[in-house]
Design goal:
single chain, 455 residues, alpha/beta, Rossmann fold, Helicase, Ruva Protein, domain 3, five-stranded parallel sheet
Length: 455
């Protein structure tokens, strides 16, 4: 790696020595006889490496080092010191110097320490490049959809990701709450630290306490050794608490203490352990309602909901369905090594008409099945599950709009139209209302008024 190097020393012969040795290696070298001159050069140039003597008249190398660490922290700084002042070099290392050279030194010593520093720069830049690549792979580009609802979610995530605030993600099952939690982590300064996810709904109370906070040997039957909880395991990183609305009042109280005190007390222990964990929680229930009903602590709710992200269900972002369907088709075609190039218009119509009560997770499941069952090269309606295929029959039957029927034939025609639509949808009232062009509540009222059956 050829570099632009700044050398700072009040002795001209030292400046010439460094310049001669380093330029012969192909590096561009600028020299400064004082800290003031060096700072002036730093303001006008982009340097890859700095050598500086520690002892100079007026301002010294430590003053320059502090200036560099404050404004140019990415530049490796190598201090030059006399043999009798090693303590100063050690102090410089503590302040942030990359390495030091002790006078007298040889040409090879200069080249060796410069090579180490420049290799460090190269590796650091490679890490940055890979981090950006990973951000593209696992970050925003993995969130499929360009609907306004999802754009609003992503804008909010981008604003709060690199803060320390706790985040509460709310949304129906299958909307992608863990994906958003991982995105928050990946876009934060904690991205290189652990991301640990735990589903709070699968543990009984005593096991969840142990899982989250840890326990000491003998704390309960079966505790044969100390266990580090997930809060400690996620130190410096992010802990994602899924299904937070299911936790008991005892766990709620302990979680509140952890969030307030920033420390964890393992089950059965008398001492607490400090930790630095960013908490992101998620729920598919209305926590605010649970709070008003006394099922969820008010103080914990406000601790968790510093920032609230509301994920829209798929039925409210229908413009994203096509992109998601193709994304999952390509994903599973790759996984299962299938040659698939497209989705037929009829199959796509059925996919677009489905209510997707299970949201993105249900759509992914359907597309995985379709990839497996399709003979290729197209996914057609035959490879879709029966409930989704029924959306096809609704299209081909071309039922007349409900309002037209009312005008033409009155109450009896209205009754026949509802019965026919119910038959086509196998009694699914949500789909029936959509076909007839009325709201679900209007359909229920008409079913009752016309004596079709209990709503």
């Amino acid at each position: 790696m050829l570099a632009k190097i700044l050398v700072v020393d009040d002795e001209q012969h030292m400046l010439k020595l460094f310049e001669k040795i380093l330029t012969r290696q192909g590096h561009e070298v600028r020299t400064a006889a004082s800290v003031t001159e060096a700072i002036s050069l730093l303001e006008k140039n982009d340097f890859d490496l700095i050598f500086s003597d520690l002892l100079m008249p007026d301002l010294g190398g430590m003053d320059l080092l502090k200036e560099v660490k404050a404004g140019y922290s990415d530049i490796p700084f190598i201090v030059i010191t006399a043999y009798g002042t090693i303590e100063s070099a050690v102090e410089a290392m503590k302040t942030g110097a990359f390495d030091y050279l002790t006078k007298p030194f040889r040409k090879d010593d200069i080249l060796l320490v410069a090579g180490k520093a420049l290799k460090y720069c190269e590796l650091r830049n490679e890490v940055k490049r890979l981090r950006e690549k990973l951000k593209d792979k696992y970050g925003v580009k993995k969130i499929i959809g360009n609907s306004k609802a999802m754009r609003d979610v992503l804008k909010l995530v981008a604003r709060v990701a690199d803060s320390q605030a706790t985040v509460l993600i709310q949304g129906e099952s299958g909307t992608g709450k863990e994906l958003i939690a991982r995105l928050i982590h990946d876009l934060s300064s904690r991205r290189d630290q652990p991301f640990i996810a735990v589903d709070c709904g699968i543990f009984p109370e005593h096991l969840l306490q142990s899982e989250l906070f840890g326990h000491v040997k003998g704390a309960f039957t079966g505790a044969v050794q100390d266990k580090k909880g997930l809060f400690i395991a996620a130190d410096k990183g992010t802990l994602f608490l899924d299904e937070i609305g299911t936790i008991s009042s005892a766990v709620q109280l302990n979680l509140l203490r952890v969030l307030q005190e920033k420390e964890v007390r393992p089950v059965g222990s008398l001492t607490s352990i400090k930790g630095d964990v960013r908490v992101v929680a998620a729920t598919n229930v209305n926590l605010e309602q649970a709070m008003h009903e006394g099922r969820f602590r008010r103080d914990l709710y406000y601790r968790l909901a510093v920032v609230t992200v509301d994920l829209p269900p798929l039925r409210e972002r229908r413009s994203d369905i096509t992109a998601l369907a193709y994304h999952f088709m390509r994903k599973y075609a790759t996984i299962y090594d299938r040659e698939l190039s497209d989705i037929t218009p009829d199959a796509m119509h059925a996919i677009l008409q489905n209510p997707w009560d299970g949201n993105v997770r249900e759509l992914e499941n359907v597309m995985e099945r379709a990839v497996l069952l399709s003979a290729g090269p197209l996914i057609d309606e035959a490879s879709l599950p029966l409930p989704v295929r029924q959306m096809m029959s609704c299209k081909t039957k071309q039922l007349e709009p409900f309002k037209t029927v009312i005008k033409a034939a009155g109450r009896e025609a209205e009754r026949k139209a509802i019965l026919k639509a119910l038959e086509e949808t196998m009694g699914n009232k949500t789909k029936t209302a959509r076909i007839l062009g009325i709201s679900r509540s209007s359909l229920y009222n008409k079913i009752c008024a016309l004596g079709i059956g209990k709503a």
